[in-house]
């Protein structure tokens, strides 16, 4: 008889790979990126306003018909793509648009964090659709895992996981 590995057996190693991959991205801020929460919000708001003007009248078209080089959010209306980028990625990671993109040249793949975000988005999809939805006994049949699940507004998740490890120890100070 061939040994069977449950679908959930891959969850731990997959999360570990995601954590390692995510930690490759240093929390350093480049000179052209805003660094304070207020500056990040203002920068992102300005860029989204500029892009919203550029796509006026096309907001309901699929993102890939309006923007170039859309790989993971195909089928999403172009207007919603801007909201997803601002709320789902920038805010969840505590970064500006310039962390993954070259402003004004949004389609370019010159920055490594852009590919990391794409790969981690695929990881979240695998966790939701291939793992969580196949665990018997989970009441929520529509589980959600996204950037915020781990990052909580921080680019580096090291501190978050250090606090989790610390919280299970008596007398530990994070």
The H-level CATH homologous superfamily, spelled out, is Photosynthetic Reaction Center, subunit C, domain 2
Average pLDDT, all residues: 82
- What is the general shape? globular
Distance between the termini: 48 Å
Total tally of structural domains: 1
Strand tally is 0
Explain this structure to me?
There is one protein chain. This protein has helices at 11-24, 37-54, 63-66, 78-93, 112-131, 147-151, 158-167. It is mostly helical. The protein has one domain: Orthogonal Bundle (Photosynthetic Reaction Center, subunit C, domain 2), CATH 1.10.468.10. The termini are far apart.
Short characterization:
With 174 residues, the chain is mostly helical. It contains seven helices and no strands.
Topology diagram in text:
Layout: H1 11-24, H2 37-54, H3 63-66, H4 78-93, H5 112-131, H6 147-151, H7 158-167
Helix pairs in contact: 1-5, 2-4
Defining key terms:
Photosynthetic Reaction Center, subunit C, domain 2; about 0% strand; disordered N terminus; globular; mainly alpha
